[in-house]
Amino acid sequence: MTGFELVVRSRRTVTPEGERAVAVAVRGEKIAGLHDYDALLDTAEDIDLRDLALLPGLVDTHVHVNEPGRTHWEGFDSATRAAAAGGVTTILDMPLNSLPPTVTVAAFEEKLRAAGGQCHVDVGFWGGAVPGNVKDLAPLRARGVHGFKCFMSPSGVEEFPPLAPAELRRALKEIAGFGGVMVVHAEDPALLGEPGGPTYREFLESRPGASERSAVRQVVELAGETGARVHILHVSSADCLDVLEAARADGVAVTAETCPHYLTLTAEQVPEGETAYKCCPPIRSEDNRDLLWDGLGRGVLSCVVSDHSPSTAELKVPDFAAAWGGIASLQLGLAAIWTEAVGRGYGLPDVVRWMSANPASIAEISGKGAIKPGNDADLVAFDPYVDNFVDASLLHHKNPVTPYHGRTLRGAVLTTWLRGRPVDGVPHGRFLLGEQ
């Protein structure tokens, strides 16, 4: 068989070797080959993007879908439509804030039933590590979760309590035994306080960078002791960077991520009462943001993922002490990061490394994250030049609440292909189950 079902050409195709003028040929849901841009190819459909960019589908390993149980916050249909519209072709769902949380095989089966037939992109799942469920970790791994999420401080929902240090050690030993990974919300509860009032300044002061640094130190020590692989979630404080860099130099199996809101927004920009900006850990200063970019550029931070954690507008009351903490940005991450990255001298290959290749590698998702033969034909046509005005009411997110509302970003997704087929409103995403 010589013909292809689809060929997509672009003079700015982002491959593992960098930007190239390439014709990407697709057969049987896979990338069958990379050819010269102007090669004559036998294909059912031939699309020429010319100077528009062709990227691999992004891989967002930090998404709170919230279904079942809190589907009025978000759900698999709305979340995966938003993902595709933002160039994301693979998401990993967090074990909270769904009800029940994904902390047993039975709860995981319930989530799979809820998600069935709704997914517009491919979906994998994290399991949860909570007090008392060490015995459930290996069965969850065997059923197909990609790893385990835990909190060191209160999660914000009663059904997903944090692990005390001794419990974290036991869970890490268990996970090390079967070669899994623990992804950690790292804030030291001993260094957290209650906000002294409703303002953003008071909220920020209640969650200092020292809390993140202390928690990351503890995780690194326990990872070194147990031999477990760990990944630090949503690093917001540059105070953590030297700890992470030293740990990796010492051979500790630790990686770390940050998020678009920490790289594009600053505490100085947060309007009082605009609790769409509230998240934990919090958005910090402009100087801190610059240091996070430096850490990302040097590889201390490996990837950029959304931590999409939406809620209803009613929970975002204009009081930073009382409002729900979570940023909704799944559809906007690529444009937000590109807007900031291009002004700092980075290119699309950097963005693809941070938002596609590295997340896929950390979560051990095969066949994703790069335009290369044999991988799934997850492709994104991206206009890197166009202005993109954000109207929250027009996003696919279930609730029109995002701190990017009213901002003009740079770049827009034109078409997203999942395994060679355009995402067109008919769900054809699959479950990505880990080692079984």
From TrEMBL:
Keyword Chloroplast in annotation: no
GO MF annotations in UniProt: allantoinase activity; cobalt ion binding; zinc ion binding
Gene Ontology biological process terms in this record: allantoin catabolic process; purine nucleobase catabolic process
Source superkingdom: Bacteria
GO cellular component: cytoplasm
Names of the cofactor(s): Zn(2+)
Enzyme Commission number, as recorded: 3.5.2.5
Pfam families: Amidohydro_1 (PF01979)
Keyword Ion transport in record: no
Assembly mode: Homotetramer.
UniProt record similarity statement: Belongs to the metallo-dependent hydrolases superfamily. Allantoinase family.
Protein name: allantoinase
Organism of derivation: Nonomuraea cypriaca
Highest classification ranks of the organism: Bacteria, Bacillati, Actinomycetota, Actinomycetes, Streptosporangiales
This protein's encoding gene: allB
